[in-house]
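Following the same procedure, the fold was encoded as tokens, giving this record:
***
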Amino acid sequence: MKNFKKQFPLLEQYTYLNTAASGLLSENLLEFRQDHDLDFLIGGSLFRDKRDALFLKVRKAVGDLFGCAPNLVALTPNFSFGFNTLLEGIDHSKKVLLLKNDYPSVNWAVESRGFEVCYAEIDENLEDNIAEVVSREKPDIFAFSLVQYINGIKIDPDFLLKLKEDNPGLLLFADGTQFCGTEKFDFEASALDVLGASAYKWLNAGYGNGFFLFKEHMQEKVQSGEFEIKDLQGKNKPHKGSFIGTFEPGHLDTLNFGSLKTAIDLIKQVGIAEIENGIKELASVAKAKLSEKGVLESAVVNRELHSSIFNIRGDDKLFQKLRTNRIICSQRGEGIRLSFHYFNSEEDLENLLKQL
């Protein structure tokens, strides 16, 4: 792929294998933020008057990228805010299926509200495990991450379509924080009823912005709950009193959501197909070479479908060695987590392998 070091200057100094923890700031995003604050500086409330038009553009940009009607896109500061808001509108007597050791923002939000909960194991037989628990427990909702944050195990989208076909009443709520921005995705054609994501990772949009996508029928599902936050909408909100308005109380941040649109514009400039192909090619090579070294868990090695996130065996000594050699990664679970984005290269992988 093309050289992205100019767009992401940090790549000039480090081998950055840590997008699963935090995406990078691009030159485009820095330029937008400088212009934004200058316009605010000299415009004051005149600048503020243009905010609603900006938010409409952001919703459209998100909807276009992920295959969702803009009027069913909610702008939230992060996944956790949107997901907790969603759960407040769901009848707490419902039974929810979770994945054991899924991201705490998913599991804890459900467990802390008194829902009846059942669990499926995350291993090489993930899809079979889910199908078995759904058949046995008959949950009303399945809440899960599309890609697991610790080891990168990715759920099969074709399995989700079959699961939905066999269980049409089962609602699927997905966290796409470790997924959105890595490949082309059509929400409307997917099995999901709700998809939420924070945008500071694979979308490289900076902090303080995220989104939720909804299928049309979710308006009835959520509004049936005891959910009154929509009454907090301001008089100038474009979605005052609407379903989407329930997820956007108060004022939205023009800097952060403008950053989200700028990040999506860069993705469109690069091309989501090129991004997807680059990530998959590098992830395939990385999985093969890391498997040869025997540093991956069997649950990852034995699965055909995987993301570009890997957790390798390694202690603090190895982690510090990698950091000393300017390889940025994270300690997660019992090992060291590595993540490869479209701006990474096989040279980055070879540098890693050399240190291992």
